[in-house]
Amino acid sequence: MGKILFGIDFGSKLAGTTVVSIFKQNKIYFMEVEEGVDADSFIMNAARHFKPDIVFIDAPLSLPGRYNSVPGCDDYMFRKADIEVKAMSPMFLGGLTARAIRLKDELEAEEIEVRETYPKILAHKYDLNNLGYKGKTHHINVCRSKLQEALNPRIFMDCQDIKTWHHLDSLLALMSAMNYDMGSSVTYGDENEGSIVV
Question: What domain of life (predicted)?
Answer without folding.
Answer: Bacteria
